[in-house]
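Schema walk-through. Below, the input block comes first and the output block second. Nothing else is stored per chain. Lengths vary across the set, and this one has 536 residues.
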Amino acid sequence: MFGLTAQAQTVGGRTEVFPGSELEEYARYAQTLGQSPLYPWTLRPFSAGQLDRILRIRGDHPWKNRYDFGPRRSDVSIDVVRPTFTLRYNTAFPYGSNDGPVWAGRGLTAAFQVGFAMRVGPISLTLAPEFFSAQNKAFPLLSNGDTTRLRFADGQFKNVIDRPQRFGDGAYTVLDPGQSTLRIDLFGLGAGISTANETWGPADNYAYILSTNAPGIPRAFFGTSQPLNLYLFRLHSLIEWGILSQSHYSPVGGSRYIQSTQQPGTRRFMSGIIASIQPRGMDGLEVGAARFYHIGWPRGGPQWSDFRRPLEAIFKNNLRPEPPLPGTNQVVAVRENQLASLFARWVVPGAGFEVYGEFGREDHSADTRDFLAEPDHGGASRMFGLRKMWRSGYALRAEGINFEAPPIKQVRSEGSVYLHSILRQGHTERGQVLGADVGVGSGAGSTVAVDRYSAKGRTTAFWSRTIGHEIGTYYLDGADVSAKSDVVHSLGVDALRFVGPVDLTMKGVLSANLNRNFQGDAYNLNVQLGARFSNW
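--- output ---
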């Protein structure tokens, strides 16, 4: 078994199960082992009622005596989101991903989070803001030919994505509302407002549409608070609408409103929908789909048609014409950009094993024939992952995503993942990619990790490889370009230790950036230290 030992104190619990958090990961492993109920994992964060079910972890398990996994004791509760302080240090260049609003540049980055969670019957409120300050020391940039503020913008795609290489030439400080949500859940349905991070789909590291890599989107939402039993399957779904903002280093300036292809507006409206089903008689299987829209903010505010956008026709030929936008002759899907995905996850009952995958793409196909003939058109992504958990506390997991430019570009003009020629902020929120934190346009990433859970905490060793940038048009002209891929290989050790009422985290990552900025190699050491306090 796990070699349980008595812990000095039971701390924390359901108020800290945010997307990508320690307790969310632990609950997923428990479900894989069959120690908690099978439940959809492709739509996160979870509601308070969902957490009541997910955290019913049965039997002996490593953290049994550390956290409060018991049932809810009252219809009224107030809990602290424990104060968390984290230091990150990078020796040569920025490193870090899936850190929510935090951006860790070169040098020291300090972050602090604290808050509270309250439940009164069907109403739940979490306020968990986060503050961080990055020293943001200078490092060599990939030159984009600009000498204005846009010299800090993306080195390859400065005009079609808001993804700064560096947030200015001084300290970068942000106070973010963080993992904050107000919601009401009644009769199996839920609605509310939130700024919390989301993860759409089954991915752990490389979620295609929404991940924990950027600040959460300020939004309103409506959906199921528990999967609805429709006999043949259980349905879990969500629709939401929000406001997307840009950084100071965005290629878009001027008015907040969309006016033309050259003035697409500094503010965007987002709308999205995600749904998953659990087929009857196929325990542990969930399949689903998602659509996400960026829409240029119209003068006078979003229209009813903008709110209905996630429910519009799938194929472009079935869309209604709209007034032309100055600068283009197109009359459909001009003021918007769509990302869509199909995904599946299967937790094999009793095996301690799960496998999952996702196919994502940008833009619409023209019609059914176009989709069947060339499903990659518009920029397509493939993600695959698996994890295996043993009752000894060991776990193995692997995940990869790939959306490198396909050979179809030889014969047909092709879109690029996370980029857009009109809404030129790309798939970002305040300068960070909302999806997988790998290279935009043509990128890939993979991670392999071994985890060890015990009564003392967790230890993880991992390797990752990400493609940050690619150049060359081999798929068009056959010309071989040396140093055509900017690739980062990383080896790291990550540990969590329980010390009395404090959770201590320690992480060290050595990264080799081959062909950095398509030039020489560079090496970075990332060190992280953190503490979460129960008494303060």
